[in-house]
Amino acid sequence: MNQRMSGAMLSYLLILVKLVVTLLFTPFMLSSLGTEGYGLFALAGAMAAYLMILDFGMNDAILRFFVAHENDREKRDAFLGRMLSLYAVLAGLVLLAAVGFSTLAEPVFGASNTPRQVEMLRVMFLYIGSGTAVLVALNPFGALLSATESFVFLRGLEIASTLVTTLALVAVLLAGYGPVEVVLVTASFTALQALLRLGFAVLRIEVRVRLAWPALDELRSVGGYAAPILLVIVAEAIFWKFDAILIGALLGAAPVAVYAIGVTFNKYFMSFATAISRIMTPEIVRRIDAGADAETLTDLMIRISRAQALVLLMILGGLIVFGEQFLTLWLGAEFAASYPVMLLVLVPYALELTGNVRNIVLQVKGLYWYKSAITLGMAALNIPLTVVLLKIWGVSGAAASTGLAVIAGYLVIAILLQRRVGIKMGRYWRETWRGIFPAFAGLVAVGLVGASYLPAGWIGLVMGSMLFAAAYLVAMLGLAATQSERDLCRRAVRGALPGRRRHA
Question: Which PANTHER family does this UniProt record tie to the protein (predicted)?
Fold first, then answer.
């Protein structure tokens, strides 16, 4: 198998590993830390997302420039050296921001949390900042490995890191340590993963780095490509992380835990969707640079979006039918309140993620500023709406606000694609959802009725999930999928079999 196919399969294996780890480790972590301790950990994670903003969106930008230099190693390595110098400055900004967050812990969270909890947050922000600074400093190596399509190493490293980090966290929690030590371990392994990417780039890709400061014109070029991406990163951080901060400031740490569990599956949804689009990114860039017209881009978006929809809707359907039962069995009756949070966010997010390849198209076409402005506007609207709905419906109100903002942004960006890129959105939607949506709606309706006839407890949940998955595969592959999609699935399955790989 080539790097793309192997990388795609390892990407889905990575998602599966992370999902299994989450399912097995989260209850243990909750019982070890308690609801409030887990809420503090979630708040630290939210702050980590804001520190990563100080990458300034340039990771995607330099990936695009690495692709442009892929046939000239000398230019590529010189560009890498200049970007590493720039990113060293960004890492320093991350450390300064971490100190600032630590200083603000008491004024922001002191009213709804105890002094001990505030002190723990202060220390956790410093640990998170240190790990994130190392990650940001070495980010150019990750971009280089993606540009050279070293997907097997990248995904394999992430799988190994996930497993080793989890084992270390289990040992820390069994030893009786708390959320501060959990964050320290997590930050340490984040830094280690970045260092291993550096080692691979030096030893296997044989980069030769000489640090130098980029010229002003180069900074403008990279910055011009990255700036709109930065705005989207800021907007998405507001969408997915600021709710937790508002809940922590207004309601306390325990409600943060309920909300955090409700949005736990967001990252897996995003991972399933981007596993395909990330691997296709270099090829999409090449095709647009070669002058692909709007009709070709529409066809490409439909093909990728259908593949994403086939995967995402199986997960979404299972969560709609069995989500509340699963949360209650998994974490206890107090987390049944996470079910509406989960659906209010995931249903619109599934629509947003299906077809996120449009982001690459907008970036390369130089139109990402429009997308950035739209997303940032929706995120800004989300803040006051969240505050209002929090007071009315609690954590479910925060989720409803986020979901409404996601849908509004998606529709406005669709208008942008049609008017400025020439994508025929009507054809895109019809062909993307043809066969898939009717089958999905029918399966969910039958599943909701049939779930009441299943045995209670884990046995009924497992039986129901297996039946739903089997029915989904039969319906989608038998009725909804096109012949080319069926052929692709067969090739992927054959390629995954050890005895067949040499023929792939």
Answer: PSMA PROTEIN, PST FAMILY PREDICTED COLANIC ACID TRANSPORTER
Q: How far apart (Å, rounded) are the C-alpha atoms in residues 162 and 282? A: 26
pLDDT at residue 56 greater than cutoff 70: no
- What is the average pLDDT across 331-345? 90
What is the chain's mean pLDDT, rounded? 84
Alpha-carbon span 142 to 21, nearest angstrom: 24
Which tokens belong to 166?
């989890």
Q: Please indicate, yes or no, whether residues 325 and 359 belong to a single structural domain of this protein.
A: yes
Alpha carbons 270 and 273: distance in angstroms, whole number: 5
**Are 234 and 208 contained in the same domain?**
no
Residue 269, class by beta-carbon neighbours within 10 Å (0-12 exposed, 13-18 middle, 19+ buried)?
Answer: buried
* DSSP annotation of 149: T
Query: Mean pLDDT over residues 55-83, rounded?
Result: 75
DSSP state of 484: H
Q: Would you say 485 and 307 are in contact if contact means Cβ atoms under 8 Å apart?
A: yes
Candidates 88, 90, 81, 93; CA nearest to 215 is 81
Residue 354: enclosing H or E segment and its boundaries? none
With respect to residue 224, please indicate whether it lies within any of the assigned structural domains.
Answer: no
pLDDT at 317 over 90: yes
Alpha-carbon span 15 to 215, nearest angstrom = 40
Tell me the chain's radius of gyration from C-alpha atoms. 23
Residue 256: which of 25, 22, 15, 47 has the closest Cα? Answer: 47
Other C-beta atoms lying within 10 Å of the C-beta of residue 260: 23
Share of the chain above pLDDT 90, in %: 28
The count of other CB atoms within 10 Å of the CB of residue 380 is 14
Mean pLDDT over residues 267-280, rounded? Answer: 74
Task: Count Cα neighbours of 212 within 13 Å in the Cβ-side half-sphere.
Answer: 14
CA 114 to chain centroid, in Å, comes to 32
Residue 220 located in a structural domain: no
**Same domain as 463, residue 339:** yes
